[in-house]
Amino acid sequence: MKNEKISFLIKPASSLCNLKCKYCFYHDVSEHRMIKSNGIMKEEVMERLIEQSLKLLDDDGEITYAFQGGEPTVAGLNYFKAFIAYVTKKAKPKQKIQYALQTNGYVIDEEWVALFKEHHFLIGVSLDGYKENHDYFRLSNNDQATFKQVMNAVEILKKKNVEFNILTVLSKQLAKHPEKLYKFFQKNDIEYIQLIPCLVGFDEKDAPFALTPSLFSHFYKRFFELWLMEWQSGHYRSIGLFDNLLMMLNDMPPITCGMLGFCSLQLVVESDGSIYPCDFYVLDEYKGGNIMDEDLLTIMKSSKMQSFLQEPRKNIELCHECPFVRICHGNCKRMNDLYIQDNYCGYQDFLKYALPKLQIIARSIK
Known about the structure:
Largest sheet: 10 strands, mixed
Oligomer: single chain
Strand content: 15-25%
Number of strands: 12
Helix content: 25-40%
Shape: globular
Radius of gyration: 20 Å
Order of helices and strands: EHHEHEHEHHEHEHEHEEEHHHEEH
């Protein structure tokens, strides 16, 4: 089986990180595994992954290697240089190679950015908005504030014209200040923004940072108003949720996985070569196999990977008669608790408010 397009989400440093963010979802995931961290990816695992992944690709197909963590830069600059060199050696002439990396930005300097620039990386930088909020949640391992270092990384990326976006975790605390956050993005000329809802941990009963349905709606209604004013003035600022909704309204699939209420295989690669179906479920019970023991195609077709796709979804009564079911279908199964509680859906509430205006914009940009 060959693919025109295929992508991998690679964790070269497993769950290792140089920050200790208060809400870290991958820390929670790794705490629920027999082995919390697999350490830095070894050379033989890296080479096996590259060889196997390129075999799945058409001779003129496109492959994306996206690196995440933990914190992927913990693997070191030389890891990425070696990875790129081996891909260059093994790829066929017409195969298109794309790279992406999600980082906390803490160690990003001129040398890192030179690599990103040379190989056309798309960079995601985790920045939780304005200093007060960011430094509350995102501390280094020795309890130091990180806002200054991350903003410095953002400035270097801008200066060197490296394509990047900002990922901001939308916590319960931050959701109370939509205007302050939007003005921060405006002031700092941040044009591409993804807001990631703060999750409830697997065993968490008291979730001090997790987003709630009412706060989701409260935040996005005001955020949308500010975004709409900019759009009406002739400036389009890319906001992940709004971008995806506009795509769906123009009969295009959303970029964000799970927004249409079903799962697809993400092909998450842990540093020991283990393969999982989704970044939210890098758990022992979802492990499809290991590339050091069997080939990727066999793993992709394994019962573990396929059963994940067919896993029964929660029956949400509110969804049965929802007018927005065609652009939601219950949304992501890991996230829908953030939107829906009892007889209220914050996502539905927001769509009632914003969708008529989004439909007008969608028609205008079709």
